[in-house]
């Protein structure tokens, strides 16, 4: 496994997640932007340091990979937000944002939402 991708399950087969994506930076066509992100779009997003927080189906989020439920909540000393509060926080952030592989990535997004 090269990397792990993090997301917040919103219910109804929907996942909010942050991923590098160049297309929102160069187009306003929502139908094109909402299509599944290709590797070329992802790599260009990493290089350009732009991303989007988006909501996709579980299938599109996983892109064929296995899904592992993160149970870190049991190990944290700070109690996480309720499921509803996490989902609300995630959905409020949907859209284009800056990206950093080290400092502002999908894991940071999930940590903030939790």
TrEMBL record:
One of its GO terms (cellular component) is rough endoplasmic reticulum. It comes from the Eukaryota. Pfam families: LRAT (PF04970). Residues 1-114 form the LRAT domain. The active site is at residue 106. GO terms for biological process: retinol metabolic process; vitamin A metabolic process. GO terms for molecular function: phosphatidylcholine-retinol O-acyltransferase activity. PANTHER family: LECITHIN RETINOL ACYLTRANSFERASE. This is LRAT domain-containing protein.
